[in-house]
Amino acid sequence: MSSGGLVWGCCGLPTADDYIQCKKCMKAFHLACLTSSSGSSDLVVPPWICPACTNQLPKGGNGDEIPVGFSPNVTTRPTKRQALESPPGSGPDLASKEDLRCVVQEVVQREIEGLAAKISGSLRLVLNSELKTVSGEIKDMKDSMNFMNTKFEEMLRDQNEAKVIIADLKAENASLTSTVKDLSARLNSIEQNARSKNVEIQCVPEKKNENVIEIVTKISKVINCNVSSENIASCTRIAKLNPGHPRPRSIVAQFSTIQTRDKFMAAVINYNKQKPLHDKLNSANLDIDGPKTPIYVVDHLSPANKALHAAARTAAKQKGYKHVWVRSGRIYMRKSDDSNFILVKDMDTIKNLV
To answer: Zinc finger PHD-type domain: which residues (predicted)?
Structure first.
């Protein structure tokens, strides 16, 4: 090759047989200089671009504009990027930055894809395991909910049945209560009728070897009733409700007829009406030793009527009723002398007093 008028871009020696020119800057380069730097003259192929001009090419430039033409003295080889699998030093040392970037991107892309595959596999395994656990828990929860729902329905059914039973029991209880109340009233009436011939004499001093029939006959003489012992069917003292109370036991006298009993009671009432308060029927009238104590003759009441009589007396004090009395086993109340009397049948009558 003629070297006259050339501008050298390598060592600058003016003479050289083998050289090549850059198609961009038209500078000449000795093949020997290029070979010494690259280690092979086969990499220098016309048309050729020097390294300085190569660096100035736009990104993505790969020599596609190089025309097809080459020197007969130089082996022509297509320009290509070094493969990833190539050993070090097998590619050109003058590769562009774009090629290097592509290589790095490809390596990074492969690493990312491999890492993503590993992560995806790991996540798939973890998710499958967790989903199996969650699925099992959901199934157990569903079974529990079904069990609870079944139990709730059973409880609701039992509750409805219990409501029906309770309603029936309430109705039955109301009926039984009414029946018991009616039977109690009947029993009380029977007990009171059994005492229709009886009188109860209270607060008579009690002595040993006393004759209670004689006491009753003495009372009849005092009140001018003249009841003989033949008119008395039975006579005895009854036990006290409170054994420790100092009050003497009452005497219960049963007369032979109701008429005799009513006659005796009327005589007692008339006697007490005729006497002053301090001189009403008392123990001195019967010649009984000891302090003078009043004697009371009242109807012999059944236990239920005794409790009702006591409640009536208490209510009379609380609500201002003036009179409470018993006649023929029945209890009466009157608020004043001019008011109507009230027959006390049961506790409800006392509760409804005004």
So the answer is: 9-54
Beta bridge mates, 19: 30
Domain range enclosing 322? 301-354
**300 near 193, Cβ under 8 Å?**
no
Is-contact 321 245, C-beta < 8 A?
no
Decide which of 194, 228, 261 is a domain's last residue. Answer: 194
Q: How do the residues of the chain divide into helix, strand and coil, expressed in percent and rounded to 5?
A: 50, 10, 40
The Cα-based distances of 197 to 32, 50, 182, 249, 295 in angstroms read 164, 156, 25, 20, 20
β-pairing, 296-299 vs 198-202, is antiparallel
**Tally of structural domains, the chain:** 4
Q: 207 and 132: one domain?
A: no
Q: For residue 17, tell me if it sits in a domain.
A: yes
Tokens of 296: 């009371």
Q: Do both 181 and 102 map to the same domain?
A: yes
Specify whether the CB–CB gap between 198 and 253 falls below 8 A: yes
Cα(334)–Cα(102) distance, rounded to whole angstroms? Answer: 124
Three-state DSSP class for 47?
coil
Residue 182 or 1, more confident:
182
Q: Final residue of a domain: which of 146, 166, 194?
A: 194
Is residue 202 assigned to a domain? yes
Q: What is the pLDDT of residue 63?
A: 44
Give the tens place of pLDDT for each residue, 258-302. 999 999 999 999 999 999 988 899 999 988 888 999 999 999 999
Other CB atoms closer than 10 Å to residue 237's CB: what's the count? 16
The helix (run of H) or strand (run of E) holding residue 252 is: strand 251-255
Query: Is 91 part of any domain?
Result: no
Residue 90 falls inside a structural domain = no
Give me the pLDDT at residue 195, please.
93
Name the pairing type of β-strands 296-299 and 232-237.
Answer: unpaired
Q: What is the mean pLDDT of residues 223-242?
A: 91
Q: Kindly write down the DSSP assignment for every residue of 194-235, as one continuous string.
A: HTTTEEEEESPPP-TT--HHHHHHHHHHHTT----GGGEEEE
Task: Note whether 49 and 57 are within 8 A (CB).
Answer: yes
